C-alpha cells in the first residue's frame, strides 16, 4: 500500500488526501460509507491450463461458493480454490491468487503476491454492472492472449493535441544541423545515401538518424521520410486512423528516432495524417508474427460516433490474427466524455488490469480473473441482510395483502378450486378441500366445439384433477454446480436457491446439473439458513407454459395449442387423462420437440387450466365465456 495517496470520492469533488502511512480504506471509513459484514464469493476454474486463459463459454467448470467474513487469502491447487486466514499456513502446493482484506467494516481486493510480482489481477469487463469500463491513460487491457496499453486519450479539439508517437526508449529526438555535429565541417559536398545528391536542400537538411558511418552516414530528411512512408504503408482512413511502428535501419539495425528537432520546430520523423479528436492511442504489447512483428501504436479516431472494433474479423479496426481472439472481441466507444470499453461476449473475455486495491461496494458485484480462475465477489451489507430475513422488509399489512392476493388469484366464484397453476400459495389447504373442489372443468361454454357424444352441450366438460404440487414450482437456471453434489439456481422471480443432489431423483440416475441448464423446482425456505431458499423435487425441464386450444378433433382425440410465445404444439388426449378439450381452453402445459415430426412441438404434460378466456374468437366476442375480458 502506498505511504501517501489520494482516494477519489467522486468526479465532482477533489480527492481526499490521506495521512502518511495510511491505507486507502481509511479514507472510506472517515466518509461514513455503508459497511459490509460479509462477501459472497463464487469461484469458477477452467479445467484446462492454457496461456492463463479462462473460457467463458465452457460448461465444464469447477465451481465453489464461499461466505467470507474476515480477511482471507485465496489459494488454488489444481482446480480447487480454498480461502485461508492471513496467518494460517498455506496449503501444500497451493498458489496464492487473491487477497481479500477487511478494514473498518469494508472489504478490499488486493494481490496476494508481492507488489513487484508480474502476476496481475484482471477485472472482467463483461461482469461490470455498467457493462463497460471507463478507460484511463495507463490502463492495460487483455484480449485473449494479447495486451494493449492505453497511451493517450484526447476527447476534444481544445489545445490542438495530436498523437504522441513516442514508444519508451525509442521516443528520442534528433537535432538536424547544417554542419557535422562532431567536427563542425561543412556538409555542402556530402552525399545523401538515398538520392546521391550533394549538400542539404532548402528546408531539407542532411541528418545522421542511425549508427551507420562513412559514405552512408548522411541522408536527406525528405528522402528518409519518403522511404519510411513507403515502408509503413499508412492508410488514408477517415479521421486519420493508422498504425505506427518505429522502423530500424536495414544496415546497422538501429531504431530511427521518433522526432526531429529542426531549429525551433519539433516534428515527427514520419509524416502521419492529422487525427480528428476524439481519438485513442493503443500500444500493442504482445508480438504477432503475422501482423505486429514489433511494438507499435494504434491511432484510432472516434469522430462521428465511430465505434472502435477489436477482433479477428476483417471488419475490425484493430485486427489480431490469433485463435484466442473472437471475430468481434470488444469495442471502444466515446460516450458522454468518456472512452468506454465493452466486451462483445467473447470466448476468452475482455480484461483490465487492476492498478491498485479495489473497494467492494455493498450491493454490487465484480469478477476478478487470475489465470484460469474467475472469482465473483459480492459484498453484503448489514442492511441488505436484514431485508432478506422473513418479513424484514415488509409491513404486516403489506404482507397480509400479498398473501390474500396470492390466495384469491384466479379463483372462480370465490372458490379456491379455480386457483391458477404457478401460484406459490395454490396448494395451501388443498388437503382439507373436498374432493369435488380439487377437480375443475377445463372450460365452460367456449365457442362452437362441443363435447363428443353430446353435440351442442356446452359447459358440460368432464372434470380433471390438477397435477399435485405444480402450483409452487418455479423455473430457474443453474448458476453454479460443484462436483461435491450441490449448487445454486437463479430463479425467474429474482431469488437464489440452494440445490442438493438429493433433490434430483433416485440414486443411479444422472444427477449432475450443468451450468446454464433450465430446471423447475419446489422452492421452500432453507431450514438451516433463515432468510434463504432451497430447491426441492427438481425436474430437468422448464416450468409450465401457457397456450390456447385452437383446434380439437373429437373423433381422433387430438388437437393443437397456440403457445403464448408463438409456437404451435400438438396435443393428444392421452396427456389429459382421456378428457376431450374445447376450443378456447387456456392450459398450462409442458412442451417438448415432437419425435415424429422434426421441427414441430408436442405437449408432454398438461398441468391444468390456466384460467381466463384464450381469446380464440369462437364465441364472436359475445361474452359467453363469462365476461372475463380476455377477448
Index terms:
single chain; 631 residues; mainly beta; 11-stranded antiparallel β-sheet; 40 strands; 6% helix; 34% strand; disordered C terminus
Strand order of the biggest β-sheet: 4-3-28-27-9-25-11-12-19-20-16
Strand percentage: 25-35%
- Helix/strand/pairing class, anyone? mainly beta
Helical amount among residues, as a percent range? under 10%
Rg estimate, integer Å: 35 Å
Number of strands: 40
* pLDDT < 50 stretches: 1-22, 25-32, 386-472, 614-631
Distance between the termini: 67 Å
Main beta sheet strand tally, sense and closure: 11 strands, antiparallel
* Helix run count: 4
> How would you sum up the global shape?
elongated
| Mean pLDDT figure | 75
Amino acid at each position: 500500500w502506498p505511504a501517501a495517496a489520494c482516494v477519489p470520492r467522486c468526479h465532482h469533488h477533489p480527492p481526499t488526501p490521506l495521512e502518511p502511512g495510511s491505507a486507502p480504506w481509511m479514507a472510506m471509513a472517515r466518509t461514513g460509507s455503508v459497511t459490509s459484514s460479509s462477501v459472497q464469493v463464487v469461484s469458477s476454474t477452467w479445467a484446462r491450463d492454457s496461456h492463463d486463459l479462462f473460457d467463458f463459454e465452457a460448461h465444464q467448470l469447477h465451481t465453489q461458493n464461499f461466505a467470507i467474513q474476515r480477511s482471507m487469502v485465496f489459494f488454488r491447487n489444481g482446480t480447487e480454490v480454498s480461502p485461508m486466514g492471513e496467518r494460517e499456513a498455506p496449503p501444500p502446493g497451493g498458489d496464492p491468487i487473491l487477497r481479500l482484506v477487511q478494514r473498518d467494516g469494508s472489504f478490499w481486493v488486493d494481490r496476494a503476491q508481492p507488489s513487484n510480482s508480474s502476476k496481475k489481477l484482471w477485472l472482467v469487463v463483461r461482469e461490470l454492472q455498467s457493462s463497460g469500463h471507463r478507460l484511463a491513460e495507463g490502463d492495460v487491457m487483455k484480449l485473449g492472449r494479447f495486451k494493449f496499453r492505453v497511451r493517450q486519450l484526447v476527447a476534444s479539439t481544445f489545445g490542438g493535441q495530436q498523437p504522441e508517437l513516442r514508444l519508451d526508449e525509442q521516443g528520442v529526438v534528433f537535432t538536424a544541423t547544417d554542419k557535422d555535429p562532431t567536427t563542425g565541417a561543412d556538409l555542402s559536398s556530402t552525399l545523401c545515401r538515398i538520392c546521391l545528391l550533394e549538400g542539404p536542400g532548402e528546408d531539407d537538411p542532411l541528418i545522421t538518424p542511425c549508427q551507420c558511418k562513412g559514405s552512408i552516414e548522411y541522408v536527406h530528411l525528405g528522402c528518409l521520410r519518403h522511404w519510411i512512408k513507403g515502408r509503413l504503408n499508412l492508410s488514408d482512413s477517415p479521421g486519420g486512423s493508422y498504425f505506427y511502428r518505429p522502423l530500424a535501419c536495414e544496415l546497422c539495425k538501429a531504431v530511427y528516432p521518433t522526432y526531429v528537432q529542426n531549429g525551433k520546430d519539433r516534428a515527427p520523423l514520419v509524416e502521419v495524417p492529422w487525427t480528428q479528436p476524439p481519438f485513442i492511442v493503443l500500444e500493442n504489447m504482445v508480438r504477432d508474427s503475422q501482423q505486429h512483428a514489433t511494438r507499435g501504436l494504434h491511432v484510432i479516431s472516434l469522430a462521428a460516433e465511430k465505434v472502435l472494433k477489436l477482433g479477428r474479423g476483417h471488419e475490425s479496426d484493430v485486427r489480431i490474427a490469433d485463435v484466442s481472439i473472437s471475430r468481434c472481441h470488444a469495442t471502444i466507444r466515446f460516450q458522454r466524455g468518456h472512452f468506454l470499453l465493452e466486451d462483445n461476449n467473447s470466448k476468452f473475455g475482455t480484461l483490465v488490469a487492476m492498478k491498485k486495491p479495489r473497494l467492494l461496494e455493498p450491493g454490487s458485484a465484480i469478477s476478478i480473473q487470475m489465470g484460469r480462475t474467475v472469482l465473483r465477489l459480492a459484498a453484503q451489507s448489514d442492511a441488505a441482510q436484514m431485508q432478506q430475513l422473513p418479513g424484514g422488509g415488509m409491513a404486516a399489512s403489506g404482507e397480509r395483502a400479498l398473501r390474500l392476493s396470492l390466495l384469491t388469484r384466479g379463483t372462480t366464484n370465490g372458490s379456491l378450486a379455480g386457483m391458477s397453476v404457478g401460484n406459490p400459495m395454490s396448494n395451501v389447504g388443498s388437503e382439507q378441500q373436498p374432493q369435488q373442489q380439487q377437480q375443475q372443468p377445463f372450460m365452460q361454454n367456449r365457442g362452437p366445439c362441443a363435447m363428443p357424444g353430446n353435440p351442442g352441450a356446452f359447459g358440460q366438460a368432464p372434470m380433471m384433477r390438477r397435477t399435485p404440487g405444480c402450483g409452487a414450482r418455479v423455473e430457474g437456471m443453474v448458476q453454479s454446480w460443484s462436483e461435491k453434489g450441490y449448487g445454486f439456481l437463479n430463479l425467474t422471480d429474482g431469488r437464489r436457491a440452494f440445490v442438493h443432489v438429493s433433490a434430483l431423483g433416485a440414486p443411479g440416475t444422472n444427477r449432475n446439473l450443468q451450468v446454464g441448464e433450465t430446471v423447475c423446482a419446489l422452492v421452500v425456505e432453507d431450514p438451516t439458513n433463515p432468510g434463504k431458499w432451497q430447491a426441492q423435487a427438481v425436474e430437468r425441464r422448464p416450468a409450465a407454459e401457457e397456450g390456447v386450444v385452437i383446434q380439437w378433433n373429437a373423433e381422433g382425440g387430438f388437437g393443437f395449442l397456440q403457445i403464448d410465445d408463438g409456437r404451435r404444439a400438438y396435443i393428444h388426449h392421452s396427456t389429459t387423462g382421456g378428457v376431450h378439450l374445447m376450443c378456447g381452453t387456456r392450459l398450462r402445459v409442458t412442451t417438448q420437440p415432437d419425435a415424429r415430426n422434426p421441427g414441430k412441438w408436442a405437449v408432454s404434460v398438461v398441468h391444468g387450466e390456466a384460467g381466463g378466456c384464450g381469446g380464440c374468437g369462437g364465441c364472436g366476442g359475445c361474452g359467453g365465456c363469462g365476461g372475463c375480458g380476455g377477448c
